[in-house]
Amino acid sequence: MRHHYWEWPIPTYLFLGGLGGGIFCLAAILSFFVYPDVPMMGEVLAWPGFLGICALGFGCIMLVVDLGQPMVFYRAFVKSTSVLAWGARFLTVCAIFGVLWFASYVPWDWFAPIAGFLVPFRGFCLAIAGLSGTCIMLYTGIFLSTLKAHAFWATPALPVLFTVSALSTACAAIALSIGWWPAPFTLESVIVAELSKEILHTVDIILVVVEIVVLLVMVLSFLGAGNKTANKAAHRWVHGSYAPLFWGGMIFGGLLLPEILYVFGGHSAASTLVAPVLVLLGGLLLRFMVVLSDDRAPLPGEDRYYTRIADKDDKFVKAWTYGENIF
Amino acid sequence: MTEIDIHADDVKMVKSLCYFCHANCGVLAYVKDGDVIKIEGDPDYSNQGGLCCRGTSALLHLNHPARVNHVLKRVGEKGEGKWEQIDYDQAIQEVADRLNQIKAESGAEAVASAGGTTRTDDWARRRFLNQFGTPNGFHNALLCWIPTFMAETCVAGWSPFETDLGAARCLILWGMNPGASTLGGMHGYWDLHNAGMKMIVVDPRYSETASKADLWLPLRPGSDAALALAMLNVIIYEGLANYDFIGQWCSGYEELTEHVAQYTPEWAAPITWLEPEQIRTAARMYATNTPGCIQWGCTWDQLGTASTTTSLTLALMRAVCGNLDVPGGDGMPGPALNFLTDEEMEANECLPEEQKAKQIGSDKFKLTSWPGYTLISDNARRTWGKTLPAEWFCEAHGPSVFKAIITGDPYPVRALIVNATNPVNSYGDAKMTLEALKRCEFLVTVEYWMTPTALLSDYVFPAAGALERPTIVTHYGATDSFLGGKRAIQPLYDRHTDMVFWRKLGLACGQDPANWPWETEEEAYYHIMEPLGLPISCYDDFVSMIRMYYPPLHQKKFEANGGFWTPSGKVELNSTIMQELGFPGMPEYVGCIENEIDTPEIAEEYPVVLTTGGGFMPYHHSEHFQMQGIRFLYPDPYFSINPALAEKLGIEYGDWCWIETRRGRIKMRANVDNETHPNVVFAPRGWWFPERDGSADLANPFGCLESNVNVLTSVDEEDCDPMGGSWANRGLMCKVYKCGEFDAEFTAEDAQFSIPGNAKEPGIHAKPSERPLAREPRPFTKPEPEIEVPEGYEWVWQNNTLYQKGTNFRLDASGWLINPRTKGYHDAYTGWRYDAAGEYLVDDETGKIYTMEREEIPFLGGVRGYPGAEAAPFEMPEHLRWNVEAGYAMLPDRQLVYDPNSGWMIDPETGAYHDAYYGYKYDAATQQLVDENTGNRFTMTYEPVVE
Amino acid sequence: MTRYVMVIDQRRCIGCHSCTVACRTWNDLPLDIVYNPVLTEGVKGTWPNVHRSWLPTLCMHCEKPACVPCCPTGASHQDEDGVVWIDYDKCMACLACVNACPYGMRDQSKLQPRLHRFVRKCTFCRDHRAADPGAEPYCVATCHQKARIFGDLDDPNSEVSKLIGSVETVRLLEDLGTGPQIYYIPELGGKA
Lengths: 327, 947, 192
Prior knowledge:
heterotrimer, A: Formate dehydrogenase/DMSO reductase fold, B: Dimethylsulfoxide Reductase, domain 2, Barwin-like endoglucanases, 5 domains, seven-stranded mixed beta sheet, six-stranded mixed beta barrel, 26 helices, 48 strands, 24% helix, globular
């Protein structure tokens, strides 16, 4: 069976895109619904927002790098009906408005005119970035799940899982970075940051639990389900070649361990530092494992055919170039 | 990519023929400005528009960057790969000078020539060699049809190879897999099979064709002789033979009945690994569904010791079932009686008898060399009036020539011209062959590619290939039909066609230009077909307008002929020619060279049966490994091994493994598949690695030994067929094991040669001329003539008849000679033909006509005269005068002669017609008569014409 | 209306790969691109009771192709006659369609320059047929066995219509709901 068409940039992008989208989603929620009246809220969230922009930007680079023709990436914006085209738009919109929002907080003097100009639009920008960020989180999973050729992706659980994971990793990222520059080092901002952290901490505890449940439901339901292809992939996850990564890496290292640290770690570094990092790594691992599980139902004899034909690196492939006569 | 427009005005379509295998499918080539821009299968040819991978790749082949395009002269050490490009004609002269020098020093026989599978005629090579004076030309013909053809010809007078499948009810494909070789044929077989024709496939491998068969006999590789004999036994002892046919047309049936009694299916079962019932079923299916065909397959010629025994048995099987030359049976075309045969192009008369006697291998493998050929050919001349080519059918024994190069036994062979073959990969015992090429003092190669052989050569000449040469199909000069294709373009670069190469070399060697009158193939082919009298003025006309010439279908020719074309006139079930050559006249079982029953000691060490030599898509012989588009689909050599055996040996799909016989070992990858018996492996032939640097490893240049099954085959004298000389690709004993971590590389040690073949004792250990054969010759004494043999005549003991030497006409009891071709009577003294209609004799050489008293008859303006006759021997108009002296009826005042056949007067000077009453000239344009004196014109009824 | 389909007669196929090579030769494909692999599971059964069949494949030119709606640029396109093809001037090789195809019939060539790859697939020789209206796809024309039959399903007199109407045919992975338009006449005793 031919698969693994997508190489490492795509899962990396799926992770970063979800992370970036999640950060703006959470930033918007925190700003508009949780602490709508707290003045320093924007400043303490600016740095996480910047990280979100970086994630989106780097994710975009990954996406473009993986193209066969990176120079014409703009073609993605032409057609309106495909999930992927919508994704590209959300990504762009989120990144642009995120940048505008962040720019309004940049405290450099020379930048003041621009920042000052943008200040009135802060709320608007964050709202747009938050909305499109949410769409990014949703679309990555939806996109994969619409590719029905890959039975392991073709489940409604996948968008849920990706969204929860995106939010969870965003929580972790914000918790790690909230309150840094350009927020002024004042008591107020520290308090706002700490309060936000507490909330994120609690939210992430819940998200991780949800993620464990969704992940197990998805994988274990495939394990028992009739679709041979998905079943085969699930077997690989549960007790096949992916099992160490799945159980040890994702379930334990990426979800259970940080959960334990969150719950029992109090305010120790284990809880505030190690656990979020583990959550982030777990999110990355999840994307890789899912993308690599792109099993198709093989046509009869397909495996045999493709193992037998030549490799593109075989010597004879490059031994002769037409137009260059040897003798 | 922009689409090529083949309908543009400046694009010319050329009817060509494919040249990548023997099927020679029809190809339409589209040519623009001297470039072939596209090809496609010809829908109006037998391939019905189909083209296989090889045919489709013709353009890539034409322009492949690795093609040899110029003459390469070696400047470094042999094999070093250092070349100088030199002018073609200069190279020809240098080679010719060297050949002449060797001839002067060591005799012409010290020059030999190796060929492969030229996919058309190859008489030009023979024409050169005959004039040069060497009998040592050879091809890989012994593995391909020739021994079979000779055995079949001994039985019935020609090989019955043209199957008439349309009317056949049963077809045996014996060791033949058209599903991977002749795809156009496969289409036909499948359609006919679908329409109800029974299809029996005999193949140890579950081949592409076996997948579609009614009955498949998966015999032990190499046991074909036993299976064939047992089937013959069943047909005879179950009373399934065609007794009318046998009674009327065959001789020796009682002897045969007695002889095959021993070969029961129960006897054959342990040899063939088949159930006796399977053998009976097959025999019954063939014998009760008549008419039927047995399609020739290469296997019969690749069984080594048992080769000709097998084909002889199958020839008898056809005969006793009455399937010879009947509708729905195996047709015997005979030589081309209506156009020139290849034999007539070979100039065999130029080769002196004493040189023929020096042909290497002719003292051992007589059936396919001058001794056997002479008997068979003389008989063919006496029965058909023409004969089969000496090219292919009468050649030196290739492996023996290679051994002679190494050992100097029976005499040194110093120069070898290799054209259209890479012997390392296509001849048996590759290690010995490679050594011979290395030791050959002067090696010249004509090639498309830098093969291992070309690498070791002193000169490499570029060869023109498909699309660059006209191609004809006359089945190597063995049939009476003629199919042709044009060249699409002239050869590119400095490439030349084979005939041009041999012609140039011949002229440079000092051969008589009168013997090489044709500068191109087209001229030669036109010369060949001129006797057909077709309305064409050149060869290209033939292709454009006719393309396929078939003589009026002559089935049951033996009835019109009054017998078969054997010395006795019967189908000889106990062949007298075979006996005369010292062979058994009926097939006597002989096992293949290595098997569990005859050689248990070998089977103990090498327990697995290896079979090879079969064709496999997408390659042909050792060709096409450079064609990347093809190679990509099949990049590595895969041998087939049954899962049960693979499991036992710890081999998994794709593992590199060693296959080892007593002669050596090679590496291939395992295709674990149920394609073969659990104790059989099937290995593809011909493998080499042209992408490698040949000079880097001269022990194994281009990896030509590494995965080459011919490292495993034997050409030892006792392993060859004692009649035809072919060696075994089928039924060898081997062992198979996975390449170990420290034993994964093919080393120089693996490449060491040995004579006789034995990997454990490298080097020369025996003189080939002293080795025994698989079966000692059976002395045969020709009976003494029972009648007096006049000078100039030969007595044939089989039918107690005299034949005139030279013409090979039979001396009839009436005292006349009878021409076998025309059945016409000839005067025994002058050879002049008797014309029954005119009751006179005709000298066909001069066209002159003689009376029965052998006096010349004059002709004036095409009208026969009767000088001296008192009166006209025919009715003539009264007003004409009979000229006694001249013997013509004439007008009193005019020098016009009366033609009694047409009733017109003929002007002997001009041949013009004049009316018999007034002598007016007939004007064909106006259909009027003209009075030449007055210029007046008249109608045909003598009405004056008013202008 | 015209609806191009292909009938593949597995009873006739002998696995010679001519279609693959004709396709790659005349469509000028990079070496690592195969539009129409001829698959086989090898010889099945236990010696000597064995069986084998070949499965010539190509793009299924589905009624509801999964590869078209997922394309973000509109390069992946279906004509009214059912032919699915890629407009190279629009493709950026994101491989969405490659991953969407349940049959694995699309890919980009790794032998092309890294920044100039696009996704390729069988087009039923769309350009070739446009240039030469009488022509059949290369894989069809070259087949000695006539195992591939191409034609218009909407024309009741076409060979494909007659075959599909008279012989039992099967289609690959039909349950995915894409409506593949390659109809297989299975080898007796085997399965597609």
